Sequence to fold (160 residues):
Amino acid sequence: MKLDIEKETAALQRMRTGQLCERYAELYGEPTRSRHRFYVLRKILWKLQSIVDGDLSDRARRRAQELAKGSELRVMPPPERDIKSAHSITTNVQASSDPRLPAPGTAIVRNYKGQSHRVHVTTDGFEYEGERYRSLSAVAKAITGSHVNGFRFFGLEGKS
Fold:
């Protein structure tokens, strides 16, 4: 049976999640535990590709099993620890700020609808027209009246 992966891919991309789950069950012989469309699509395409191009060799499978024998696989999450008995270490490490942001004390200026808007960067957020804001998105919302990505609105998106 010769499969055309490109045609199969195109057909799979047109399918809905339920149809993809059915196709997954056909290929793997068991239902999928996920309803994430992209994940199921990738798993199906991987299986189809392994059918066309061949799967792992027996030698590679044996080696993978050998390597897996010595490792501990965690099936359950670790038990929750008693917070009262745990020792806590406090450090005075300052949280790193976003590299896209200019240094505190800098003014960001944006012309919007014929008006110039000046935002001052502070150590704990931003100041715009005498009001404090925690994020640039909040400032952008105050200016535009709708939700806008603050970094994109002020032209700081691509900076690093």
Observations:
- Residues 84-96 have pLDDT under 50 and may be disordered.
